[in-house]
């Protein structure tokens, strides 16, 4: 019940796990937003399914452990849930218009928004190495978007809006993670998100097929697991350190495409993925040196 000790290595691994689960959510949302599993569902309904099933999973665990809420900051929770719902819904909509890798690449520019907001709002000190690592990862994301490759403008704009919403949510999570327990944050977020998403989906809801029900449940369970990993990561390291590791979602999305749809990455995809991983590796290496007692003190990065 006490705040966890700072552990950048664990935070990096937890963020990578969250990235893998979120890429899986986007893959299922792509199938639901097209005709792969039946008549395409509206993004608002897909987003509702994500929150409903995530709430069932997290709520069941909380009930089983007799968890009790302790002085939650409800206005901040509501702001975080609104930003998260907006980001998820826009991301699901973008995935239906443009290729999965492109939508993921554009929307997961949110770590850039998150790191910049961490400097402005949280007062985190970011030095040249972190900025360089973030810039390298951003370059990899831009390579994966294939500039000039004919990306559909509406889908790209939806993904960009998703990135802005999710970057704002990143800061709200950081505020909450230093004050409340992870399970409380997850439970309230999915409760508020479920209420917001259900109200929005009421006007577009249609009966899903059995396969679509299964995919909706999968999205909710994967997202609940991803949230658990991410909230715990944010409690163990600065937001500016955690954020760039989310670029790994791009790599996982490419791997899922290859495994599920037999879409092998081309040279541009491989170059972009390696560039993203290079930026994340540089950030992790520098952070480990700063935390090591054998390394002389250095200015913050």
From TrEMBL:
<dbReference type="InterPro" id="IPR037185">
    <property type="entry name" value="EmrE-like"/>
</dbReference>
<dbReference type="Pfam" id="PF00892">
    <property type="entry name" value="EamA"/>
</dbReference>
<feature type="transmembrane region" description="Helical">
    <location>
        <begin position="129"/>
        <end position="146"/>
    </location>
</feature>
<feature type="transmembrane region" description="Helical">
    <location>
        <begin position="104"/>
        <end position="122"/>
    </location>
</feature>
<keyword id="KW-0812">Transmembrane</keyword>
<feature type="transmembrane region" description="Helical">
    <location>
        <begin position="211"/>
        <end position="234"/>
    </location>
</feature>
<feature type="transmembrane region" description="Helical">
    <location>
        <begin position="185"/>
        <end position="205"/>
    </location>
</feature>
<feature type="transmembrane region" description="Helical">
    <location>
        <begin position="241"/>
        <end position="261"/>
    </location>
</feature>
<feature type="transmembrane region" description="Helical">
    <location>
        <begin position="49"/>
        <end position="67"/>
    </location>
</feature>
<feature type="domain" description="EamA">
    <location>
        <begin position="154"/>
        <end position="284"/>
    </location>
</feature>
<protein>
    <submittedName>
        <fullName>Membrane protein</fullName>
    </submittedName>
</protein>
<dbReference type="InterPro" id="IPR000620">
    <property type="entry name" value="EamA_dom"/>
</dbReference>
<keyword id="KW-0472">Membrane</keyword>
<comment type="similarity">
    <text>Belongs to the drug/metabolite transporter (DMT) superfamily. 10 TMS drug/metabolite exporter (DME) (TC 2.A.7.3) family.</text>
</comment>
<keyword id="KW-1133">Transmembrane helix</keyword>
<feature type="transmembrane region" description="Helical">
    <location>
        <begin position="79"/>
        <end position="98"/>
    </location>
</feature>
<feature type="transmembrane region" description="Helical">
    <location>
        <begin position="267"/>
        <end position="285"/>
    </location>
</feature>
<feature type="transmembrane region" description="Helical">
    <location>
        <begin position="152"/>
        <end position="173"/>
    </location>
</feature>
<dbReference type="GO" id="GO:0016020">
    <property type="term" value="C:membrane"/>
</dbReference>
<feature type="domain" description="EamA">
    <location>
        <begin position="11"/>
        <end position="145"/>
    </location>
</feature>
């Amino acid at each position: 019940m006490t705040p966890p000790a700072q552990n950048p290595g664990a935070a990096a691994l937890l963020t990578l796990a969250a990235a893998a689960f979120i890429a899986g959510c986007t893959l299922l949302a792509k199938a639901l937003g097209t005709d792969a599993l039946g008549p395409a569902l509206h993004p608002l309904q897909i987003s509702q399914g994500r929150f409903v099933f995530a709430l069932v999973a997290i709520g069941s665990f909380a009930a089983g452990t007799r968890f009790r809420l302790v002085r939650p900051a409800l206005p901040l929770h509501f702001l975080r849930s609104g930003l998260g719902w907006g980001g998820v819904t826009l991301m699901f909509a973008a995935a239906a218009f443009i290729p999965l890798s492109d939508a993921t690449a554009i929307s997961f520019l949110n770590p850039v928004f998150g790191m910049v907001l961490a400097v402005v709002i949280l007062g985190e000190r970011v030095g040249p190495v972190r900025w360089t690592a973030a810039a390298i990862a951003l370059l990899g994301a831009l390579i994966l978007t294939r500039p000039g490759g004919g990306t559909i403008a509406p889908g790209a704009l939806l993904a960009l809006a998703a990135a802005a919403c999710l970057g704002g949510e990143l800061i709200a999570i950081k505020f909450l993670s230093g004050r409340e327990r992870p399970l409380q944050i997850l439970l309230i977020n999915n409760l508020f998100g479920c209420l917001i998403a259900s109200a929005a989906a009421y006007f577009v809801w249609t009966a899903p097929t059995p396969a679509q029900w299964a995919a909706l449940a999968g999205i909710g369970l994967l997202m609940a697991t991803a949230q658990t990993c991410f909230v715990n990561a944010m409690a163990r390291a600065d937001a500016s350190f955690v954020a760039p590791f989310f670029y790994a979602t791009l790599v996982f999305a490419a791997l899922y495409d290859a495994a599920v749809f037999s879409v092998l990455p081309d040279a541009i995809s491989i170059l972009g993925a390696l560039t993203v991983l290079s930026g994340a590796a540089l950030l992790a290496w520098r952070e480990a040196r700063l935390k090591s007692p054998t390394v002389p003190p250095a200015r913050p990065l």
